[in-house]
Write a structure and sequence with these properties.
single chain; alpha/beta; five-stranded parallel beta sheet; binds nicotinamide-adenine-dinucleotide
């Protein structure tokens, strides 16, 4: 898709309004149209479309109390209903702000009629005529507004944007449903993709976390022999890849990006079935992988010179299962771009996606010695690779515990050049959001639901701890429970699913046992009602965890990262915000932290005290600015410079 799913010129919306009016008026037996407009031209057009012979019950106009009355004073022979929003300040504020934004827009009729520099003819110009004039200028009907950058060009000259799918488009959804049906029983394979030798290990099944009965494929894990020959091959291939001109390395990464982009539709069922991703998450994942390849290619094209930028040599890339394509590809792309040769160890749960990525990179011209895949367990394959003296650097994304283990192993030796072995580790943390009583509850709840429960909470940046000012807590939690109740937990092969499974039965067991511990301590755990039979059938079928909201008595009760759809909530008194922020900091490194407030001092206080990589500030102004300060880690705003970028992978 190369455009936006909305009109980028107002005249198109005006024409669409008239087209809808015509259709509605043509079905008087089925519909009683009510036209709410403050635009004089639209009102006249509706009357003309309806014809001169008005019959009662044919249609009516509607006018917001206090607005457009001068216009409707002119209409005597058609009914006009005056309407007024009724309710409390809380329920009406968002509506009123939306009206202000709409009517305040300088293309709005209400705004233009007050502009004395506009002539009458201009004010009441027929939108059909406007569109025809534009079409004559552009050579086609419906072309987008030239001042609005199209999605493929959003990154300007830096790189092309990746392509997604419009999941609001019925034809796209029908295509996807067909694709999923056709791929339902396709099986994939992953085995060590090594430059020398033949892998010999036994095949093991890979199953869908949403449905144990679905065999997604088979994997052959790397044996000690496979690892030895891969390490030898990498050592032999290192000099040639390091000497390959940066522009040439970049070209191959870009070719791999093009392949992954072309394979989008084929990769989606695989991501959904192997990693339990929803379709929307799977689309985002492919796009992020494509973008990583292009981003790092562009970096080395711009800045690299083989004489001054000397790569490390063989590096090991160890990735997690929660972004089996994006993080896997991101690490590999950064290392390859800088001229290193790579031994890639994907997570044991997601070898099939990793193999698909490696095949795309090989097909795009990355030599087999420069990139080898070694599927297998962390404790065996991962640990052995990291400990090997031939390995000159490690890129790791995963848990803090494993990062510490790797750090300890690497601290025991030096690189060939006598330097400490670089370890680039991106790990987990406790991500907190502070919501005070000035926040707009609707906006806060929307953010909370997507941050805590999208991807079944299996993002390193997912919200784990919601700190809400006590005065606002009951109302916010009431609305939050209502919103969570609406989410659909289920098999992501069904496109209606909002939340899929967690990655495996072990993960589900850990999350449930954490909830039982809190419950035993007297903490209230709320979960949406699924119906006993649906809950039982889901848990029998796959590793599903029903989302949970748990109230804590103190931040200290959160002892470790709980990687699933569990939101912890803490109520704080207004005068203890500073102490609450200190307690959040005391949990260790926070990957992300957010604040919802309308008070500038609170923004300053939270931003000033936050010890987190990404800060998210929402001032709760409807339709207005949200600030994100990116640092590293996947998630908030797509690809940004990662800690493991090419510049950190040099000698
Ligand atoms: P994990 O640490 O269990 O595993 C990550 C990888 O390390 C896997 O490939 C695993 O096989 C390997 N591994 C495990 N033990 C090893 C050992 N002893 N030696 C070498 N390798 C070993 O993490 P996970 O469960 O796969 O992923 C979830 C974690 O990843 C969460 O903590 C999450 O916060 C973190 N994460 C961080 C980021 C980020 O960008 N900061 C992104 C995604 C996930």
């Amino acid at each position: 898709q190369s455009g936006y799913p909305v009109y980028t010129r107002k005249a198109y919306t005006d024409v669409a309004y008239l087209a809808c009016a015509r259709k509605l008026l043509a079905a008087p037996d089925e519909v009683y149209p009510q036209f709410a407009t403050h635009n004089a031209h639209t009102m006249a057009a509706v009357q003309a479309l309806a014809g001169p012979d008005y019959t009662p019950g044919q249609y009516e106009f509607q006018c917001l109390h206090g607005m457009g009355e001068a216009l409707y004073d002119q209409v005597h022979d058609r009914p006009c209903r005056i309407y007024a929003p009724v309710g409390t300040h809380e329920t009406l504020l968002a509506y009123l702000v939306r009206r202000l934004l709409e009517n305040g827009a300088n293309t709005s009729f209400v705004n233009r009629i007050a502009d004395e520099s506009l002539g009458l003819a201009e004010l009441v110009q027929d939108p059909v005529q406007t569109v025809a004039t534009l079409a004559a200028q552009d050579g086609c009907v419906g072309s987008p507004h030239p001042a609005i950058t199209l999605p493929p060009d959003l990154y300007g000259a830096a790189r092309a944007n990746s392509r997604g799918l419009d999941l609001a488009d019925e034809r796209t959804l029908a295509d996807l449903a067909r694709r999923f049906a056709a791929d339902a029983s396709r099986t994939w394979q992953a085995e060590p993709l090594i430059a020398r030798g033949m892998p010999q290990g036994p095949w093991q099944p890979v199953r869908n976390p949403a449905a144990a009965s679905d065999l997604v494929g088979q994997v052959r894990e790397a044996t000690l022999d496979d690892m030895q020959s891969a390490l030898d091959a990498a050592t032999m291939a290192a000099a040639a890849w390091a000497a390959t001109p940066p522009a040439e390395r970049a070209a191959r990464l870009e070719a791999a990006a093009a392949r992954l982009q072309d394979e989008l539709a084929a990769l989606l069922p695989l991501l959904v079935r192997e990693a339990g991703k929803t379709c929307a998450n799977a689309v985002a994942e492919v796009r992020e992988a494509v973008d990583f390849l292009r981003y790092y290619a562009a970096e080395v094209r711009r800045d690299f010179d083989n004489a001054s930028h000397v790569p490390l040599g063989p590096v090991v890339c160890i990735s997690p299962w929660n972004f089996p394509l994006a993080i896997f590809t991101g690490q590999v792309a950064a290392a390859l771009a800088a001229g290193n040769v790579v031994l890639a160890k994907p997570a044991e749960q997601t070898p099939l996606v990793a193999a698909a990525a490696v095949r795309a990179l090989h097909a795009a011209g990355v030599p087999r010695g420069a990139l080898q895949l070694l599927p297998g367990r962390g404790e065996t394959v991962g640990a052995a690779l990291v400990a090997d003296a031939r390995v000159q650097g490690v890129l790791f994304t995963g848990s803090t515990e494993v990062a510490r283990l790797l750090q300890r192993t690497l601290s025991r030796r030096l690189t060939a050049g006598g330097q400490p072995v670089p370890l680039i580790a991106e790990t987990g943390g406790q991500n907190a959001l502070v919501v005070d009583s000035s926040a707009l509850v609707e906006q806060a709840v929307a953010d909370i639901v997507s941050s805590a429960f999208d991807s079944a909470g299996q993002r390193c940046s997912a919200l784990r701890l919601l700190c809400v000012q006590e005065e606002a807590a009951d109302r916010l939690l009431y609305m939050l429970r209502g919103a969570v109740q609406e989410l659909r937990l289920g098999d992501p092969r069904e496109l209606a699913t909002d939340i899929g499974p967690v990655i495996d039965a072990e993960a589900a067991g850990l999350i449930e046992s954490h909830l039982r511990t809190l419950q035993a301590r007297g903490r209230r755990v709320w979960r949406p009602a699924l119906g006993a039979s649906r809950a039982a059938s889901l848990t029998a079928q796959g590793s599903f965890v029903v989302p949970a909201v748990v109230e804590l008595a103190s931040v200290a009760e959160l002892e470790r990262e709980v990687f699933g759809p569990v939101l912890h909530v803490l109520r704080y008194p207004r005068d203890r915000l500073a102490q609450t922020l200190e307690q959040i900091n005391a949990t260790g490194f926070g990957l992300t932290q957010g604040v919802h407030t309308r008070i500038d001092e609170t923004v300053a206080q939270v931003v000033g005290m936050a010890r987190a990589g990404n800060l998210y500030v929402n001032r709760n102004i409807v339709g207005a600015v949200v600030g994100v300060q990116p640092f590293g880690g996947e998630g908030l705003s797509g690809t940004g410079p990662k800690a493991g970028g090419p510049l950190n992978l040099l000698r």
